């Protein structure tokens, strides 16, 4: 008979004593439980003791979290958090440096526990930490433990970052700005400032003023990867908290200092592999930089703006040595206007009498004009060749430069997500972005020439404009998916992917679709599906057995807490636990927490997950919602919450968990994998039928013959 659901069987340890095996009644007050445990070991003053987990993070057991204790849990009897807080509060004030250092080290460890942290903060412990930092001159191990303890205490959000004193902040800033400081102290100082920046405008301005961009660039150039990472984190935090004008000034300064080239050479192409967190920061830096184009993209052309009219006229004047500008020309106003309209028509404007009207659409707005002017000024030969080659054609096959440029700018904005908010988890950046200044404009210069090339290959007319730009979009997206490392490599690859290659790719995809739509083939597909679905199920479970590293994302978007989860080889238990940075695949024995698969009740995804509902922010980040899932388990319906590192991992884990729950796999990745496997299997099965058309219906069975005289009668065998 199973035990009642409010009773759990646990073991309790104590140093120097034989462990107790007890049945913990969850309805019994924790103080009574502690008294019974202390009485069994003949310990007086039960109120001075507490229970905590013996493994993992060693969290203290309280009335609020006792419901998380599982059957088979191992607990430890230890000093109560209030007693521990009192002892450490005294220890960090000791005049003995060894005692003080040991106390700070233990404080840094225990401060991860919310119960202890509250007790320590209630004793005004943060004030003592401020005093150690503000008044101390130590820059070594003692200071590192102090800053680590401060970070852990602040992580619980009991105290606002805005309450920090100016003296404390200046001291933290000084550690960042000093050269002769321990690297661990600088890393922690950078992390503290990174957390301060988003909390208030005042703190942002203070950090921005005290920690210069030059100093951050110095930290980025060190060989210590962790220090480099923390410097990048603070730089990104400053960029995200800045106003549009401040962000533009900061990016201009970083461009002057050649930060892109440095990142391209020393971070992206360094000997060390790029970590997930650095990849995310590079994605954000790329996104912030590209979003500087948003203001121009969303601004329509003002026909009354002298500056904008001059830019527009410069396009015409660069392309044509117009007679209207020739010295001594006596053209009337009407004649001059007619010549200008003719030249704007040759440039490919739809409204040649008033070309500003073509640029009223936003997006792409003035960004399209900027791109055209950049192309005409930085590659004048290519610009003149494009315009003159098409303006001299009389066979209706001319490619309109201006119209193409406007539409191409819009396509590039959509592909590069210009104007979209940064994702909190994405890591997809283009390496070539960091190898080139004026990336967007240079990319446009390559792609507008691609438009002309593709136009000629398609022998297109004005009626084919949308078709040509659709092909160009496909050429660009297919090439970008290869992640070229430089614009030169992008140019080579995108030009090699000509119209005939696109047609071949499309034809292959179309033939594949047509082959798989024949009725007999569809029937064969249905017969093969169960076997292949079982193969996918096995692969998903195998992936869960290998495990995945997940990140904890708090309300301040900190991503430095890691935990690992994996399925046991017998598919009966999920093991999970916190891990340190740099641990790729911890052994299953090192993961202290367990969830029996038999206790799992259901799988929640997206908005249904409790950790997406708990966030204080009303606006949920779309990317986090797309990667969130939770396992509901046990009779009390506890939840284990996940945020997958990528959409791929999300699909594999949700599929695998559905398999464990005995449900259908529902992810889009499952459908993609099934289609690939079915395609391969069908091609193998139909190999002998190549170039033979498969009828939709089987051929009719012929009628029986009128007589069967053609059959040999063995009864009249020759004598």
Give me the count of strands: 11
Provide the spatial order of strands within the biggest beta sheet.
Answer: 2-1-4-3
**Helicity range of the residues?**
40-55%
Which stretches are low in confidence, meaning pLDDT under 50 for 5 or more residues running? 616-620
| Shape estimate | flat
Number of helices: 29
Q: Give the overall average pLDDT.
A: 87
**What fraction of residues sit in β-strands?**
5-15%
Count of domains: 4
* Class by alpha and beta content: alpha+beta
Query: What is the radius of gyration?
Result: 35 Å
- Give the biggest sheet: 4 strands, mixed
Distance between the termini: 86 Å
Pfam families: ELMO_ARM, ELMO_CED12, PH_12
Keywords: Apoptosis, Phagocytosis, SH3-binding
InterPro entries: ARM-like, ARM-type_fold, ELMO_ARM, ELMO_dom, ELMO_domain-containing, PH-like_dom_sf, PH_domain
Organism: Haliaeetus albicilla
């Amino acid at each position: 008979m199973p035990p009642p659901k409010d009773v759990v069987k646990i073991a309790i340890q104590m140093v120097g004593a034989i462990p107790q095996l007890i049945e913990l009644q969850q309805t019994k007050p924790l103080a009574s439980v502690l008294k019974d445990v202390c009485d069994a070991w003949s310990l007086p003053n039960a109120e001075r003791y507490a229970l905590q987990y013996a493994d993992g993070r060693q969290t203290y057991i309280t009335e609020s979290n006792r419901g998380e204790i599982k059957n088979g849990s191992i607990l430890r009897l230890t000093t109560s958090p209030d007693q521990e807080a009192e002892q450490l509060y005294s220890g960090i004030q000791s005049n003995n440096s060894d005692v003080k250092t040991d106390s700070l080290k233990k404080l840094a460890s225990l401060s991860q526990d919310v119960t202890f942290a509250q007790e320590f903060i209630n004793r005004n412990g943060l004030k003592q930490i401020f005093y150690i930092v503000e008044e101390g001159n130590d820059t070594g191990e003692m200071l590192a433990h102090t800053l680590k303890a401060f970070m852990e205490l602040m992580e619980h959000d009991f105290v606002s970052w805005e309450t920090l004193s100016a003296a404390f902040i200046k001291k933290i800033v000084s550690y960042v700005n000093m050269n002769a400081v321990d690297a661990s102290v600088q890393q922690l100082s950078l992390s503290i400032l990174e957390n301060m920046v988003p909390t208030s405008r005042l703190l942002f301005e203070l950090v921005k003023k005290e920690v210069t961009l030059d100093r951050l660039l110095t930290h980025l150039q060190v060989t210590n990867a962790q220090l480099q990472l923390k410097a990048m984190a603070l730089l990104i935090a400053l960029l995200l908290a800045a106003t549009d004008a401040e962000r533009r000034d900061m990016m201009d300064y970083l461009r002057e200092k050649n930060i892109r080239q440095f990142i391209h050479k020393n971070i992206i192409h360094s000997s060390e592999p790029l970590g997930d967190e650095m990849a995310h920061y590079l994605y954000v830096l790329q996104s912030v930089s590209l979003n500087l184009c948003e203001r121009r993209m969303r601004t329509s052309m003002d026909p009354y703006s002298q500056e904008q009219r001059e830019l527009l006229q410069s396009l015409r004047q660069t392309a044509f040595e117009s007679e209207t500008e020739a010295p001594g020309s006596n053209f009337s106003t009407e004649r001059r206007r007619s010549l200008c309209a003719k030249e704007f028509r040759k440039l490919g404007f739809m409204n040649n009498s008033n070309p500003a009207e073509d640029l009223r659409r936003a997006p792409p707005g003035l960004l399209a004009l900027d791109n055209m002017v950049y192309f005409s000024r930085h590659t004048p030969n290519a610009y003149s060749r494009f315009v003159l080659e098409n303006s001299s054609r009389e066979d209706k096959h001319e490619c309109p430069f201006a119209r193409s440029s406007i539409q191409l700018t819009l396509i590039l904005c959509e592909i590069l997500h210009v104007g979209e908010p940064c994702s909190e988890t994405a890591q997809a950046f283009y390496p070539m972005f960091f190898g080139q200044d004026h990336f967007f404009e240079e990319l446009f210069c390559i792609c507008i020439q691609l438009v002309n090339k593709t136009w000629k290959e398609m022998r297109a007319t004005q009626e084919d404009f949308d078709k040509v730009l659709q092909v160009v979009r496909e050429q660009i997206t297919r090439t970008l998916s290869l992640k070229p490392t430089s614009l030169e490599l992008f140019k080579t690859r995108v030009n090699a992917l000509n119209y005939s290659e696109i047609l071949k790719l499309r034809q292959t995809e179309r033939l594949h679709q047509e082959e798989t739509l024949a009725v007999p083939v569809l029937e064969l597909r249905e017969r093969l599906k169960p076997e292949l679905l079982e193969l996918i199920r096995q692969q998903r479970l195998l992936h869960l057995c290998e495990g995945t590293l997940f990140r904890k994302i708090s309300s301040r978007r900190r991503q430095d807490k890691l935990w690992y989860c994996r399925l046991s080889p017998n598919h009966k238990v999920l093991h999970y636990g916190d891990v340190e940075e740099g641990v790729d695949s911890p052994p299953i024995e090192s993961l202290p927490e367990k969830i029996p698969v038999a206790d799992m009740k259901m799988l929640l995804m997206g908005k249904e997950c409790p950790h997406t509902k708990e966030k204080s922010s009303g606006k949920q980040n779309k990317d986090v919602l797309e990667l969130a899932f939770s396992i509901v388990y046990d009779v009390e319906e506890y939840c284990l919450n996940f945020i997958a590192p990528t959409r791929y991992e999300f699909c594999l884990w949700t599929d695998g968990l559905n398999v464990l729950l005995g449900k259908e796999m529902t992810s889009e990745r499952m459908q993609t994998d099934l289609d690939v496997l079915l395609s391969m299997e069908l091609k193998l099965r139909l190999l002998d039928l190549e170039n033979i058309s498969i009828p939709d219906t089987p051929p009719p069975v012929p009628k029986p013959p009128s007589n069967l005289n053609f059959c040999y009668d063995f009864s009249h065998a020759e004598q």
